[in-house]
Each structure stands twice: as structure tokens, then as C-alpha cells.
Amino acid sequence: MNTLTRIAVLALVLFVTQARAQEFTGVATYKSKRKVNVKLDSTQVSSEMHQKMMDMLKKQFEKTYILTFNKEESVYKEEESLGAPQAGGMEVVMINTGGADILYKNTKEERYTNQNDVFGKIFLIKDKLKKLDWQFGSETKNIGEYTCYKATITRERPKIVGGISVNGDKDLDEEKEPEMENVTITAWYTPQIPVNNGPGDYYGLPGLILEVNDGSETVICSKIVINPKNEVEITEPKKGKKVTKEEFDSIMEKKLEEMKEQYSPKRGKGNGQQIEIRIGG
Questions:
Q1: Global pTM?
Q2: Cβ neighbours of 208 (radius 10 Å)
Q3: Pick the residue with more confidence: 166 or 40?
Q4: Minimal CA–CA distance to 32: which of 98, 87, 88?
Q5: Measured in Å, how far apart are the chain's first and last C-alpha atoms?
Q6: Cα–Cα distance measured from residue 66 to residue 216, given in angstroms and rounded to the nearest whole number
Q7: Span 89-94, mean pLDDT?
Q8: Which residues of 233-251 are buried (b: 16+ CB within 10 A; e: fewer)?
Q9: Does position 246 have pLDDT exceeding 50, yes or no?
Q10: Which among 38, 77, 34 is positioned nearest to 58, based on CA atoms?
Q11: At 258, is the pLDDT very low, low, confident or very high (cuts 50, 70, 90)?
Q12: Mind listing the pLDDT tens digit for each residue in 42-72?
């Protein structure tokens, strides 16, 4: 084989390799579980009702998410949304201030778009992806057929995430700054799937993140299809009022204050028991 032919073959191999890398797509299914430990006043809630509520909440937090991804982009959303949980005559108001209905990430451009339907109004939160200072470990484990490596990161978050109110618990009405704590988050990623992505807002590791545990919630991949037969569509959300993360947080705080007023027995509303559980930051 002469030099010219060798160069032509090498160029063809490089072209095919780059084309395959650009076409690399996948669909990953994740399951989430959250520890639930809600303490209520035994004079207001019977032990039987308390247990029913715990079982109901554990089921409510068992969610399925789909991550559709290529080398640079991804869309992460819940497979199906359940209605507000009920337990006998008790009404439970679930508020997730840190979630997303549709989360689009572009790791190359280091930005994200979060489409969120809150109280019937659609918001489009567009902002830069936060840099994650991962610490790499030497431990490995298998998740399905993939060899995964451990990485950790420390984040600051409220020590008591949210509030719980039974018939207007005075602790929830008090205005005070939440105590903060540092939480270690553990991720398991696999270089066998060479994408800089993962569930939720996690990214930045040399391989797809298959499991994340923040101490209270575990999200783990249960199924992966690489380069599926059907074409993978990754579309950035466009519908909704455009706001920054700070603007959205401010709007949520105002809405939560309005809800506390609405469910407060002081206004003569809610003759039964209302419990508010707030998840997120």
C-alpha cells in the first residue's frame, strides 16, 4: 500500500469514527426512591393514619425518569406524573421547588433550560450550568453490565428541607432562615458510555452517571438503550415565561406564602387536616 493510499484510508477511518461519535445517542431509564420520615403530633394523627401516610408518601416518591441524550445534549423528564396523594380525610400538598417537568442540558455550551408547570403557569428557566467540583474515588461496582466508578461532591443545602404543617403548625408560620449543612453526594459513572451527562442537573464526569445518592434520595439507572432503532429527538423547551433561576425562586417563595395563607385555619379554611411537604432547595 503506497503512502497516498494509506493517507486516504486513515482519513476515511477518522471520518467514520467522528461521524459515529456525532451520531451517538441513547435513552436511559432511571428509578428514584426517597427516605421518608415525617413526625407528626400523635394527639392529632393516629398511629394508623401516620403509617398510611408514610406508605403513601414512599409510593409517591417512587418515580421513573427518562434521559434522552447524545454527546452534547440531553432531555430529562418524568415518565408519568401522579396526582396529589390522599390518605383518608387528610389532604397532602406536595411542593417540589427544586424539580423540573422537562430539563434540557447542553454540556458543550454549559447551559440548561428548565420548563416547569407551577400552579397552572408554565415557566422557562434558562441559566448557566453550575460547575461541579467532583472528587474522584478508586472504588468500582457493576450496575447491570457496566463497570462504574465512584465520584463525590459536597453541596450546601438547608438542614431541614421544607416544612410540615398539621392544622397550621406554628413552626411553619415562623419566619426564620433555615440552618444550612454540607451534604456529600455520591455518583457512580461508567466510561463505557462516553457522555458528559447524567440524571437531573448532574453532569461533568467522564462517562454517563448511572446512580446518584444524596443521603435522602437515590436515583439509579434501570435500563439503557444505546443508538436505538428509532431516531432520538432532543428538543429544547420553548414554551413558557422566561426567567432566571433567582427570579423563579423568588416567584416560588411568593406562591408558597400564598398557599400557607390559603390553607391556614385562621382564615376559616380547611376543616380537616392539611399537611404540606416541601421538597427541594
A1: 0.72
A2: 27
A3: 40
A4: 98
A5: 63
A6: 21
A7: 49
A8: eeebbeebeebeeeebbeb
A9: yes
A10: 34
A11: confident
A12: 556 666 665 666 666 666 667 899 999 999 9
CA 107 to centroid of chain Cα atoms: 16
CA separation for the pair 24, 195 (Å, rounded): 9
Residue owning grid cell 400552579: 119
For residue 74, with 0-12 CB atoms within 10 Å meaning exposed, 13-18 middle and 19 or more buried, which class applies? buried
Place of cell 401516620: 50
Grid cell of 61 as nine digits: 416518591
pLDDT tens for 261-278 read 766 655 444 444 444 454
- Write the secondary structure of the chain as one string of H (helix), E (strand) and C (coil): CCHHHHHHHHHHHHHHHHHHHHHCEEEEEEEEEECCCCCCCCCCCCHHHHHHHHHHHHHHCCEEEEEEEECCEEEEEECCCCCCCEECCEEEEEEECCCCCEEEEECCCCEEEEEEEECCEEEEEEEECCCCCCEEEEEEEEECCEEEEEEEEEEEEECCCCCCCCCCCHHHHCCCCCCEEEEEEEEEEECCCCCCCCCCCCCCCCCEEEEEECCCEEEEEEEEEECCCCCCCCCCCCCCEEECHHHHHHHHHHHHHHHHHHHCHHHCCCCCEEEEEEECC
Gap between the Cα atoms of 278 and 255, Å rounded: 13
Grid coordinates representing 213 are 445518592
Q: Tell me, what's the pLDDT at 141?
A: 97
